[in-house]
Specification:
heterodimer, A: alpha/beta, 10-stranded mixed β-sheet, globular, B: alpha/beta, Rossmann fold, 6-stranded mixed β-sheet, 4-stranded antiparallel β-sheet, 10 helices, 12 strands
Chain lengths: 481, 254
């Protein structure tokens, strides 16, 4: 494998393209975390009293909690007093048009390949862009409003749709759910809010781009997405950050609520800065994502392509409460150099005839560690629950690790739970076969990896599949034939 | 086109090729025959540039270039094609997608522009007729779950798509029933022109009933011990390889 390893190293060690830092002025909270920090953030956002109380409750709870240690990753203790919890690009308070956005902010997004120009947005993707702590702009708001769809920053929703926010915020991931969720609940700065009314099929992909820019800041965004009865929405999220020597914390919370017959498709391409080749710097990506199939026959599907972050700690889950509801989790997690990932899902079957499907593809290279951790839980009254899990690991080189931690808890004997797992290496034979047909090794590896991940990549909406393909340096499967 | 001079190669410190000499001109079909373990497949692998084999001596010139100096994909770009004895499976990558990548990489090597999708699909349609390959097969993962015959047919289909100057068929007849053999051989014959050449590596004579060679070489213990025309293949068929072995072991001139 020596030849392979060398080339794999070259491929996987290509430079991080999004590592620039933008020089716009920002408005920061003082460093450190205490009750005043929470009050500062809440005041900055002019929040109602109930939300401040909600945050404070989370903060006090967080103080009593300890950082989890069960995950298969190692990192030095985080000094929570050394982080800036709120950082906003300075700009005019109200924007009348996109032209008024700070040109530097605008340039940042252009560099990322995200045009905020609505005129150019013929592809039909509505974007909410979050830089550091605040939502910078939401495009296509008017078009969506005609259908009754609300797509705005969470801060805006707090003021304009308080009843929806108050009812649902924390209903899927409570403030006290876990250490990082509690932290997020205390200091979350912004994020996206989305509501799809009854019977509406959202006519375009909704998308949020997250960008950490300022130094020493943490990003704590919170996304709340509600699909009312019989509605459908496909939601995409992407993230990048500058290259810095110190680690930066990203502790987000995403809550999804699907009512009867509603369907939510949530896709992530996570490309936070992974740190350098020696493991210096990079984002700690500690994220709680959970959806509830609250109504009967509802469906929630998570798709994630995780290539960035120094450490990923993330388990997008589905609570299958409604009868006949469906939960899906499709994941590609790539770790390289010194990256560590502990990621997977939880499928909690509560309703009758609920179904879940888990497809996890781990790719480890360098000296990285890549773990799949998944729970399939079938509750007592979940008659005829079905689960199928497939966890594949692909190893590149002989210094990395791949681990699978499946947990299965079945409390109803009508359940059918299947788990399949494989571990493989890219074969020298496969590479030589490609070489012999004229395909250089670098492209051959991309082709093989792409084939390996195809089942997951096929789940991504077109706009994101392209980005994911670039990220994995993959071929254009499906563009022909 | 191809000039092999005193080629020596080994694997795991075991010398397999002990001085091969062979010249192939455009328009020719050469058959390389020999008993198991004589070095036939090694020769094919060395020409294609497989890394496990270490070349310890001699030279190979291909259209004026030092072939041994080129990476496997560069050799493919120069027009060398190897039909594998055991074609490799690549899960999740369709034959069509694989070939589009291959065709475009070869074009890139030759300084040509990438082929557009419409022309590519037209090409697929035309070439698939040559080996009578089921178009549905081309959408499936490369060689995964293919029968032995389908795999070999797919090799010749790839050869048709890549239009090599020199095709090396490594035991393409192994594992084929007579109908499949005929289809594969017909495919090779249809692709034959006065400008390209074929080296057929085989243990048995039967493939040579369909792909008629201009020259037959017998490889034994890492050397070409006898060369002749297609009649030599028939003689081998009749007498077996022991006759050759005896000749060599006795140290006679062959």
């Amino acid at each position: 494998m020596s030849g392979n390893t060398k080339i794999l190293e070259e491929i996987t060690s290509s430079d991080y393209k999004y590592g620039f830092e933008s020089a716009f002025e920002s408005d920061n909270a003082p460093k450190g975390l205490n009750e005043n920090t929470v009050r500062f953030i809440s005041a900055k956002k002019n929040e109602p009293e109930w939300l401040l109380e909600w945050r404070l409750k989370a903060y006090h709870q967080w103080l009593t909690m300890v950082s989890p240690t069960w995950q298969n990753v190692t990192f030095p203790a985080i000094n929570y007093q050394d982080i800036i919890y709120y950082s906003a690009p300075k700009q005019k308070i109200t924007l009348n048009s996109l032209d008024e956005i700070d040109p530097e902010v605008r340039a940042t997004f252009e560099k990322l390949g995200i045009s905020l120009d609505e005129q150019k947005r013929l592809s039909g993707v509505a974007v909410d862009a979050v830089i550091d702590s605040v939502s910078v702009t939401t495009t296509f708001k008017k078009v969506l409003a005609e259908k009754g769809i609300i797509f705005c920053s969470l801060s805006e929703a707090v003021h304009e749709h308080p009843e929806l926010v108050k009812k649902h915020l924390g209903s899927v991931v409570p403030q006290t759910d876990n250490y990082f969720a509690a932290l997020n609940s205390a200091v979350f700065s912004d994020g996206s809010f989305c509501y799809i009314p009854k019977g509406v099929r959202c006519p375009m992909e909704l998308s949020t781009y997250f960008r950490i820019n300022a130094a020493n800041t943490g990003q704590f965004e919170r996304t709340l997405l509600i699909a009312d009865e019989g509605s459908y929405v496909s939601y995409l999220e992407g993230c990048t950050a500058p290259m810095r020597d110190e680690n930066q914390l990203h502790a987000a919370v995403v809550e999804l609520i699907a009512m009867e017959n509603a369907e939510i498709k949530y896709s992530t391409v996570q490309n936070w800065y992974p740190g350098d080749k020696n493991g210096k710097g990079g984002i700690f990506n500690f994220v709680t994502k959970r959806g509830i199939c609250a109504g009967n026959s509802s469906k929630i599907s998570w798709t994630q392509v995780e290539t960035g972050s120094a450490i990923t700690w993330k388990y997008p889950s589905v609570i299958l409460k409604g009868d006949n509801s469906i939960g899906e989790f499709y994941s590609v997690a790539v770790t390289n150099n010194h990256q560590q990932a502990d990621t997977g899902t939880k499928m909690i079957h509560i309703g009758k005839n609920t179904k879940s499907r888990i497809v996890s593809k781990g790719i480890s290279a360098g000296v990285s560690q890549n773990s799949y951790r998944g729970l399939v839980q079938v509750m007592k009254r979940a008659e005829n629950a079905r689960n199928f899990s497939q966890c594949d690991s692909l190893l590149m080189g002989d210094k990395c690790g791949a681990h699978t931690f499946p947990y299965i808890e079945v409390n109803n004997n009508t359940a059918q739970v299947e788990h399949e797992a494989t571990t493989s290496k890219i074969g020298e034979d496969q590479i030589f076969y490609c070489n012999q047909r004229g395909i250089p090794t670098e492209e051959a590896v991309a082709l093989i990896v792409n084939g390996y991940c195809k089942e997951v990549l096929n789940q991504l909406p077109m706009e994101f599949a392209v980005e994911a393909q670039k990220l994995l340096a993959v071929s254009l499967e499906g563009s022909v034939g | 086109m191809l000039k092999i001079k005193d080629l020596k190669a080994r694997i795991d410190n075991k010398e397999i090729l002990k001085g091969i000499n062979l010249e192939v001109k455009p328009g020719e079909v050469h058959a390389i025959m020999g008993p198991n373990g004589s070095g036939k497949s090694t020769l094919a692998s060395v020409l294609a540039g497989r890394a496990e084999y270490e070349v310890t001596g001699g030279s190979v010139e291909f259209n004026g270039k030092d072939l041994l100096d080129l990476a496997p994909e560069e050799r493919a770009g120069e027009g060398i094609f190897l039909a594998f004895q055991y074609p490799i499976e690549i899960p999740g990558v369709s034959t069509t997608n694989f070939l589009k990548t291959a065709v475009n990489e070869v074009r890139k090597y030759r300084g040509q522009e990438a082929i557009d999708t419409v022309s590519f699909l037209t090409m697929i349609k035309e070439k698939s007729k040559i080996v009578d390959i089921d178009p549905a097969l081309l959408k499936r993962s490369l060689n995964e779950g293919f029968s032995g015959g389908e795999k070999k047919r797919n090799e010749i289909f790839q050869m048709a798509m890549l239009e090599p100057k020199l095709a090396i068929l490594d035991e393409t007849d192994s594992g084929l029933d007579i109908d499949a053999l005929r289809i594969v051989a017909n495919g090779v014959n249809k692709l034959k022109t006065k400008d390209n050449a074929v080296i057929v590596v085989t243990h048995y004579q039967r493939l040579l009933d369909y792909i008629v060679p201009d020259f037959v070489h017998v490889l034994y213990k890492g050397r070409i011990v006898k060369s002749g025309t297609k009649e030599l293949a028939l003689e081998l068929e009749e007498k077996g390889y022991d006759w050759i072995k005896d000749l060599v072991n006795e140290g006679s001139e062959v």
